Amino acid sequence: MGKSEVVPMPIHRQDSLYAACKGAFNTVVHTVDEEQDEDEDDFGIPDNMQLFTNQVAGHTNDGKSYGMIKHNGTILKPITKQKCGEREIDFYEEINSATDKTRSELRDFVPKYYGKVTVPIKGNDVDCIVLEDLTRYYKEPCVIDIKIGRRTWDPTASYDKIVNEEAKYQESKRDLAFCIPGFQVYKIHNNQLCKFDKNYGKTLNKETVPQALKMFLNAETVCCRSLIVQFLASLWRIQMWARKQRYYHFYSSSLLLVYDARRLRELLKTDDDVKPTLKLQRSTSLYRPLSLAVLNNEKISTGFSGQLTNQGPILRTPTSPTKLKQFNDLVQTNNNNSNNVWQKSIRTLKRTHSFQNDYDKDMQSKRQDYTYILDELCTEQKSELWATVKMIDFAHAFMAEHHEVDKNYLEGIDNLIKLFEEFLVDSE
Ligand SMILES: Nc1ncnc2c1ncn2[C@@H]1O[C@H](COP(=O)(O)OP(=O)(O)OP(=O)(O)O)[C@@H](O)[C@H]1O
Ligand SMILES: O=P(O)(O)O[C@@H]1[C@H](O)[C@H](O)[C@@H](OP(=O)(O)O)[C@H](OP(=O)(O)O)[C@H]1O
After folding, report:
1. Is 383 a residue whose pLDDT tops 70?
2. How far apart are alpha carbons 148 and 146 in whole angstroms?
3. Beta strands in 156-281 (DSSP E)
4. Does any ligand 1 atom lie closer than 6 A to the CB of residue 201?
5. Cα(414)–Cα(424) distance, rounded to whole angstroms?
6. How far apart are the first and last CA of the chain?
7. What share of the chain is helix, strand, coil (3-state, %, to 5)?
8. Are 374 and 349 spatial neighbours (Cβ–Cβ below 8 Å)?
9. Cα 258 from Cα 126, distance rounded (Å)
10. Is the dihedral of CA 55, 60, 65, 67 positive or negative?
11. Coiled coil where (predicted)?
12. Whether residue 103 has its Cβ less than 6 Å from ligand 2
């Protein structure tokens, strides 16, 4: 592995967690300044391709399968299991040509798909799926693979496969309906790249998963609210889609969360960014609508009237016309950029000011709460995104039987969102 080395983890505040990693797991630490020049020759891939070093989970070059390959701003996913490969290609091709709203919308939530190529790897011609590299524009890409669902075996799985899958990540899957097969994080306090593999992920439970997520977020001491809100903005959109879609059931599929630690480092240099001027005041749960937020020491209405009907909370137009105008202008200005997930989230949030929509009521109140935070973040001068969430790995994507909602998938998403929302509340 070139200049990478296996060294004991440094001991920081999360002593127990780091101590658990020390020695027990194959935790690899690179220093950020270190050149990561892998020896491509060892892996027998063409000269114009490289091993994809930002891969945090999935199949690797272990003699039976191959790891991801980096090529020209894309990644190539080698197909070693014919059926899984065909299923994944069929899935991408189907959603790329779909014209219905639900599947067209799904295109926004997955990496861009560029077809299939055959690559000579170690003398074998291997078919590969060509996908957008989600880490491409990030200087210090922090990546976590979160496998969604309690059940990770598909309807065609053999008895052995079921037994095998059920034996893994037991506590995490049972209690949270998701698990963490791997992640990497550029630690901003010591410039080290820390990698955590599936052996580490398999030890996690409902108490340690939040700690691992905080480690991934560089949030052991201070939680960056902008980062969490960016992730939540994407997660909420995926959640809303998963709540209504009845096309697919995903088994062993993941969410890939990616952010740029370089941008986080820049942001944390200024106190204001760590402690945003906007603070929501709330007691415990995000599932209760707020009536007031505090902006620059001034109380402002979040739009919740304090009254509930059997249709849900009654919302009023927020009382800050200036903010609302800025917000409208911003949405208007960015209307052309229809692929910008951030702006789409903002437009969705804007719609939650009205009751004339179809969204679930709890979603309305949650989004209402965060309209102001998103508004503030988007009016920052440097507003381009530096964090994103995409759905990946469709080797086990199946058509939904009887047009049922994919509860297995949805539950994992819901629980992940709850954790992120708790981080946000804790950071106030
Ligand atoms: N579009 C992408 N951009 C960047 N990295 C990606 C992308 N797709 C996958 N990866 C990286 O590759 C890893 C494995 O991806 P994926 O889950 O598709 O592979 P897999 O071999 O089918 O996994 P599994 O063993 O879970 O079936 C991910 O954890 C992630 O680190
Ligand atoms: O997390 P682990 O312990 O690495 O387990 C692997 C994981 O469940 C993969 O999703 C699966 O690949 P598929 O999705 O392609 O089935 C792989 O099966 P495999 O060993 O048969 O490749 C498992 O080994």
Report:
1. no
2. 6
3. 178-187, 192-196, 248-250, 254-260, 278-280
4. no
5. 15
6. 42
7. 40, 25, 40
8. yes
9. 28
10. positive
11. none
12. no
- Given CA atoms 91, 97, 102, 108 in this order, what sign does their dihedral have? positive
Ligand number nearest CA of 166 is: 2
Residues 100 and 246: their CA atoms lie apart, in Å, by 12
Residue 51: the pLDDT is: 96
Residue nearest to atom 17 of ligand 1 (CA): 393
The secondary structure of 166-183 as a DSSP string is HTSSHHHHHHHSEEEEEE
Atom 20 (ligand 2): residue with closest C-alpha?
A: 59
Q: Looking at the DSSP assignment, which residues form a beta bridge with residue 187?
A: 192
Say if the ipTM goes beyond 0.95: yes
Task: Supply the pTM of this predicted model.
Answer: 0.77
Q: What is the residue with the minimal CA distance to atom 23 of ligand 2?
A: 165
| Ramachandran area for residue 44 (φ above 0: left; ψ -120 to 50: alpha; else beta) | left
Query: Which ligand has the shortest distance to the CA of 78?
Result: 1
Other beta carbons within 10 Å of 379: 13
The DSSP bridge pattern shows strands 292-295 and 278-280 to be antiparallel
Q: In degrees, to the nearest 5, what angle opens at C-alpha 76 toward C-alphas 73 and 81?
A: 165
Dump pLDDT digits (tens) for 287-346: 333 333 433 444 444 444 434 333 433 444 443 545 444 444 443 444 444 444 445 544
- Ligand 2 centre and the CA of 405: distance in Å? 25
Please, are residues 245 and 202 in contact by the beta-carbon 8 Å criterion?
A: no
* Residue minimizing CA distance to atom 10 of ligand 1: 55
Distance (Å, whole) CA 70 – CA 51: 6
Is the CB of residue 276 less than 8 Å from the CB of residue 226?
A: yes
